[in-house]
What does this fold into?
Amino acid sequence: MNNSKKIAVNFNAQKIREDFPILNTRVRGKNLIYFDNAATTQKPSCVIERIKKYYEHENSNVHRGVHYLSEIATHEYENSRETVKNFINATSTEEIVFTRGTTEAINLVAYSFGKTFISEGDEIIITEMEHHSNIVPWQLMCEDRKAKLKILPFDDNGELILDEYEKLFNEKTKLVSVVHISNSLGTINPIKQIIDIAHSYAIPVLIDGAQSIMHSKIDVQDLGCDFFVFSGHKVYGPTGIGVLYGKKELLDQMVPYQGGGDMIKSVTFSKTIYNDLPYKFEAGTPNIAGAIGLKSALEYLTNIGIEQISSYENELLIYATEKLSQIPQLKIIGTAKEKGPIISFILDNIHPHDIGTILDYEGIAVRTGHHCTQPVMEHFKIPATTRASFSFYNTKEEIDFLFEGIQKVIKVFS
Ligand code: PLP
It folds into this structure.
């Protein structure tokens, strides 16, 4: 949580809500209160309409046709890449690879960077708070290349212990891969510092931006990161589309991840020549509608203003943290000074699944479980948490309902 951020007093969440038809859903006679935004965000009408328009008027395969529809589809697909490039301030569209999501983007880098640059005994640094999708691909790669994972720990507030960071580097270190905002703790990691330190050893850095792309302005040139990955569905776009940003000089050297159509210039049985960037990493028919829907989502956010969004969501986080802290039986897991709008909590002697089920009867959607971060649960010696994660379409009134809902849960179990 960052109390120093300017509060967006004029942010009109009620008006914004009109853009999201699903928010009118009634759940067992109650208004839906959607606090599962870290898992996936809801889609504004403009995204839904754009996908419909694509299938009604533009549907065709890309890059391979000379006919009218194929030219439109190709144009729109490549326009989407341009929008992504501008949204994160990459230098060129060659550095924007469309993937299925964050998970596939990390798997791509783990495989291709691993095959290209990692040999026996080399080391990769990740942290104790990574999502499983920023752990398991590296484990698979390390198994394949006989390399080793080094883990940067966090403290009981959920802040990375940076004093330990530099100690992890040696001549075998080849890459650092770190989450920007933790999906289970909410911690905003000091990624600029993390990148700068790695670069002082000439080591590239991958940033898992799955939870930061929708909450903060990302400028990959300013950050200096070598790879940045995110998912469309967490940034108000469709599922099945995601982005790998990678510096051209690295992507150029890396071997392809998958083989097939579109990723080649020419194929013979004796020699295949791979395509230029970014197509070298986009084998097969891509998710054209997904990319076009993502463009629409990014434009929607840009119109509202990501800084406005960020400060309003921070206001919600401060409000919710103060409110939930009034409940004596409740303990917040993840109390870093800098947090995104995510609150994980536990209640004395009540399992998170029971909390989630009772809250669902009140129409409140929260997520319960380990949130694909089992090492985080292990750190706190807990099996699971309940997580409420906020978006700019949420309101303080909804947080009041969550507060009341938690009181009901405690009453049921008392
Ligand atoms: N990294 C983080 C921090 C996440 O929160 C998530 C999803 O929750 C992922 C990676 C994986 O994203 P996806 O399932 O969209 O590939």
Q: What stands out?
A: The pocket of pyridoxal-5'-phosphate is lined by residues 101-103, 131, 133-134, 179, 183, 208, 210-211, 231 (CB under 6 Å). The first strand starts at residue 26 and ends at 27.
